[in-house]
Design brief:
With 185 residues, this protein is mainly alpha-helical. The chain has one domain. A two-stranded antiparallel sheet has the order 1-2. The longest helix has 26 residues. The chain is globular, with a radius of gyration of 19 Å.
Amino acid sequence: MLTWWAIANGWVAFVSWGTHPVYCTLLMLLIPLMRDLHFYLIHRLIHWPPLSRTVHRIHHVNVNPGPLVGPRHAPIDHVLFFSGVLIHWIVPSHPLHALFHLVHAGLTPAVGHAGFDKLVIGKSAAVDADSYEHYLHHKYFECNYGDGTIPIDRWMGTFHDGSEEAQEAMNRRFMARAARSKATQ
């Protein structure tokens, strides 16, 4: 609501679909990527030990990321999660962009917390639900922070696919971080 009010009152730049249809269409296509990047960054932030212990731990109480675990967050999680819409205060947008951004942010977690590896459609079709990677995130906590549209976890070395090699890499990262932490104490 605040973003729409800001657009309506001229506090942020407004772009009309009629005047700039190509720009508006491209921005609409980029919103899922912007949301993914934002989610990865804030997800890493709330896994920082002081925030993890006080804010995000309620979400990780259950190892299985089923449908009832997805919406279980502390209020700070939600504020950070939906703060991605503030990009429309910087990037000239239409109110429809902000609406799509919020709807996308609100519905995307449902897939990763479905509790199923594949969602079956009909007799012969299935959609990958990415729940296995998210299950691994809930199990090991220090991997698979992103949603998968952008392979940020692969780029940052935090991807875990369930293999022994991925487990060894995660253990090496954990041991290196523990050694750095001990050296600074």
